[in-house]
Amino acid sequence: MAARHSGASAPAARSPRSPDQSLASQLERFNARLATYLKPEEIARVGAAYVFGDAAHRGQFRVSGAPYISHPLAVATTLVGWHLDAQAVIAALLHDVMEDTSITKTQIAEQFGKTAAELVDGVSKLDRLENQTVEQAQAENFRKMLLAMARDVRVILIKLADRLHNMQTLDAIRPDKRRRIARETLEIYAPIANRLGLNSLYRELQELSFRHLHPLRHRVLEKAVKAARGNRREVVSKILDAVRSHLPTWNIEAEIMGREKHLYSIYRKMREKHLTFSQVLDIYGLRIVVKDVPTCYLALGALHALYNPVPGKFKDYLAIPKTNGYQSLHTTLIGPYGMPMEIQIRTREMHNVAESGVASHWLYKDDPTISALQRKTHMWLQSLLELQSTAGDSSEFLEHVKVDLFIGEVYVFTPMGKIIGLPKGATAVDFAYAVHTDIGNRCVACRINLEPMSLRTELRNGDRVEIITAPHASPNPAWLSYVKSARARSKIRHFLKTQQTEAAAQLGERLLARGLDEIGQALSKVDKATWDKFLKADGARSRKAVFTDIGIGKRLAAVVARRLLAREATPQEQKVAGSITIRGSEGMAVQIASCCCPIPGDPIVGLIQKGQGLVIHTHDCPSLAKLRGGVEWVNVEWEADIDRLFEVSIRVLVQNQRGVLAKLAAAIAEAQSNIINVRVDEDRDATTAVFFTLEVSHRVHLAKVLRNLRLIPEVVRIARLKDKKFNP
Fold first, then answer.
1. Which ranges carry the HD domain (predicted)?
2. Count of domains observed in the chain
3. Cβ-Cβ contacts under 8 Å for 523 (sequence gap 6 or more)
4. pLDDT at 468 over 90
């Protein structure tokens, strides 16, 4: 992604308003913090990078009028706060030079090493292509940044620090751009910070985005919180004093901090739960930091002995950490005057991770808690590479990543007891794909807590899920309407696209063979040189791509056949059109029209419409009369021996008598047919219309079903329907 999306950091082509007196003090603070953890030789290299960046940006100023170098310096200062290594700090100081100056990646590599150059390149924007929309360019830049992040997490840490400073200085740009950048930050960058465990940064980005996106709502809430702070100060102080005096009686040494709910958290809670501000009671809370895990649970018991806990409000993130590595005990207590207060209990190491997330790897390298977080982060970054390999384009990839950024809130168990975290609202299908792609692709049913359940059942914390698979099962497109995880959505789409492409290519090859037959040439006789010449002139990638385009209706087989042989159509040309045989199981490239529902034995015609592939209609389908241009008619016929079932709809008019529906069902079953749907019309005076959707093998099979039904005395009339509009 870009080194900046914000115009706040864009170099302005104008003179400075006034020399920035604060730059010298900003640089002094930066150097002082560097000296706390870097070696002298590393500090010298960082100093050289500052001089290099200052020279490259000389004459450029931010929209606010500040010298442009003040922005890279602020970004680097944030990284120094996380104790990142010298290469990352150097890259932060130079993160805009490739984009805004004539400096190249090669020059950076020669001066400061290949690693720094790769980091700068990962943060820099792609050049926008001529025909790309703004949205396409944005999605492609996100894709580049996230894939660079998968190779080196420091890329995203630099980008997040860059976005933080842009948000802090957003007042300098026009309101419409300010809102766009704030929305983008709220939707993408804040969730990434959360996913990486950078809790402090996550909250600050949310607060800044809220202030710029909804300035009036922010001011009103800010005023309300200040008023509430005064009203509740006495109660909060009383609870704080009680906790401080109570814990030592249990021999617990703890650091106790008051915590106020952030404005955006209050706003989101009011929106999601439809509450007024006065109904949001847990604005204040306490954070208790103790020495080790056993003391966490001891402190929990002590607090529950002091104040009554709220049932259902206890969460143990020590035993089951969040996906971003966060660990803590959460409980809500009812204090004096019925005021609820959320308490968070954690160790010092857990507190460090909660505040700095993956950046704490550089702050606390020897902490085993950090190593576990690094492994989780690495697994997530690898999943981005997997999403990239299955996504069709940048926009689809970005959509998957957005879904994936919402931290899993549901924790379920495999039959072997392994814990799997999933997004809130996840279903059994999400679980199946989380276990393994093949399990997801082949799943047909599930058991939740040993009970058979639907695959679309939403999972709850603690559920034990078992997936049942079948060797020849495949993903259902309907799954896309209810799966929640990016992995499941990506895998389903990839499978369906692959399946459709293969089916379309097979159909396209048959159609082209038929087109060539019409002009006296066999497809097998077309040599490689002829194909190569055609592909080069046409710009197609491969033969399979041409077959696929024919199969989905993007190309006409007759046109491709003549272009392939470099021939023009002649009036004398004999057209002996061979028929395409239809098995009914060709896949997604061949569709049975729902307007007439043909079955084997019905006279049929085929037509190819762009993007739909080959659609099979009965020869007397009313829809055919409405079709104009843009279609190619194809001679089709049923294969002699078809081994599959087809849906057909019938209407049965029966006398109103008890037990007649059971007789109808028995007659249908006796004829070896399955009932898919049934609907009964409202009773008339003496008769009732019953509509069935049945599965039959062919027209003769249907005739057998109808014959059985006519033998029932109560049946008045039977008719086959040519559409499914009556279905429930």
1. 68-167
2. 5
3. 509, 512, 513, 516
4. yes
Averaged over 344-348, what is the pLDDT? 92
pLDDT in tens, 565-623: 775 444 444 444 456 677 665 555 567 887 888 888 888 888 776 555 678 888 888 88
| Active-site option among 100, 396, 399, 632 | 100
Contact partners, residue 222, CB within 8 Å, separation at least 6 = 263
Is residue 99 annotated as part of the catalytic site, yes or no?
yes
Alpha helices in 406-556 (DSSP H): 428-435, 437-442, 486-518, 528-538, 543-551
**In angstroms, what CA-CA distances link 261 with 286, 333, 334, 486?**
10, 16, 17, 30
367 inside domain: no
727 domain residue, yes or no: no
Concerning whether 683 is annotated as a catalytic residue, the answer is no
For tokens 């604060």, the residue is: 22
Give the number of other CB atoms < 10 A from CB of residue 575.
Answer: 9
SS3 annotation, 684-699: CCCEEEEEEEEEECCH
Domain span at residue 251 reads 217-358
Report pTM. 0.61
Distance CA 141, CA 394 (A): 9
Q: What are phi and psi of 10, to 5 degrees?
A: -70, 135
Task: Single out the residue of 599, 559, 553, 607 nearest to residue 580, CA to CA.
Answer: 607
Residue 309 and residue 318: Cα distance in Å, rounded?
18
Of the residues 493, 526, 546, the one at which a domain ends: 493
User: Residue 480 — φ and ψ, nearest 5°?
Assistant: -60, -20
Q: How many CB atoms lie within 10 A of CB 39?
A: 10
What SS3 state is found at 385? helix
Task: Assess whether 476 and 552 both reside in one domain.
Answer: no
Q: Are residues 198 and 231 in the same domain?
A: no
Query: Secondary structure of 95-107 in the HEC alphabet?
Result: CCHHHHCCCCHHH
Residue 321 in domain:
yes
Burial tier of 141 (Cβ tally within 10 Å: 0-12, 13-18, 19+): buried
Choosing from 613, 638, 663, the residue where a domain stops is 638
